[in-house]
Amino acid sequence: MPPRSSITLRKLIDSVGTVDAVGVEERVAKYGTRSIKKKSKLFGLRLAASMIDLTTLEGKDTPGKIASICRKALRPHESADVPQVAAVCVYPSMVKHAIKHLRHSQVCVASVATAFPSGQAPLKTRLAEVRQAVAEGAHEIDMVINRGAFLSGEIDLVQDEISAVLEACGPSTLKVILETSELETYDNIRAASFLAMRVLRPGDFIKTSTGKTSANATLANHQVMLDAIRDHYLDTGVAISMKPAGGIRTAKQALQFLVAVKETLGDAWLNNTRYRFGASALLNDIIRQIETQRRGAYQAPWAFSEDSSGY
């Protein structure tokens, strides 16, 4: 007889439905064949730039580094063709520094929390970290779920922890990181998506990855989560937002992800309240491509500042 933990997880998977892995991979392979040119391409590039959470999550982060990344968030490039990004994402200890530079702007301050990236700390400690970030002004909190508990079948525990973090967030937006590369299967990714969405509010996010593992956002695991968001919305009317993170480094990749969003969820998700990229290294390539469209010639990569991290 299988252990009780595996039965519990299996029940959750059965309740939300399994994933046709072959179908998902065939579908996402087609996104790369879409031809996006001229005005449509420029629109997509500017949209992608406006969806970026410009991120620095390094042990050597300093107030000076935060000031630099905030300047880039507010003015990514000298050209007005490049919009401001959606948010700057930092560790809790750096929230106050980001707030100082962004408080009078439309750029949000986001903070990773809950013992990012492992999630392996007592709940009391994780909640204290969330409350600190919110108290210092964070508009958004990116939490990580306890993957070990999820894979062990402690479904109620994981959901209760998400609920506790949501309460600690108060009015701040919550983004729930699944860490898809550690969930092992598409069925588990879909199940974890529903587990989170069932307690989230409209406008809260589910997010693929921390950006700190060897495998991050892919078109396939992204598609599984988009399908889950669509099915949850059709069942409940609650619109949950989406954030792929890690490994998205080129404008071409970003456009493929946006094609997936448009074809799965429609135009209502093509804005930065419902969709974000956690991919700071992406911004420079987007700027380069926008300038290419504007000038009609490729610009050298070193023509753009490297204030952002490689998250």
Characterize the structure shown.
- The chain has 12 helices and 7 strands.
- The protein is an alpha/beta fold and 311 residues long.
- A 7-stranded parallel β-sheet has the order 1-2-3-4-5-6-7.
- Strand 1 (53-55), helix 4 (63-74) and strand 2 form a beta-alpha-beta unit.
- Helix 3 (38-50) packs across helix 11 (251-265), helix 3 (38-50) runs antiparallel to helix 12 and helix 10 (219-236) packs parallel to helix 11 (251-265).
- It is globular.
Write a short abstract of this structure.
This protein has 311 residues and is of the alpha/beta class. 48% of the residues lie in helices and 9% in strands.
List the helices and strands and how they pair.
Layout: H1 4-16, H2 21-31, H3 38-50, E1 53-55, H4 63-74, E2 87-90, H5 95-102, E3 108-112, H6 123-135, E4 140-144, H7 147-151, H8 155-169, E5 173-177, H9 186-197, E6 205-207, H10 219-236, E7 241-243, H11 251-265, H12 282-295
Parallel strand pairs: 1-2, 2-3, 3-4, 4-5, 5-6, 6-7
Strand content: 5-15%
Give the tally of structural domains: 1
CATH domain class name: Alpha Beta
Low-confidence stretches: none
Identify the CATH homologous superfamily: Aldolase class I
Termini separation comes to: 43 Å
Global Rg: 19 Å
Output the number of helix runs: 12
Secondary-structure element sequence? Answer: HHHEHEHEHEHHEHEHEHH
The largest β sheet comes out as: 7 strands, parallel
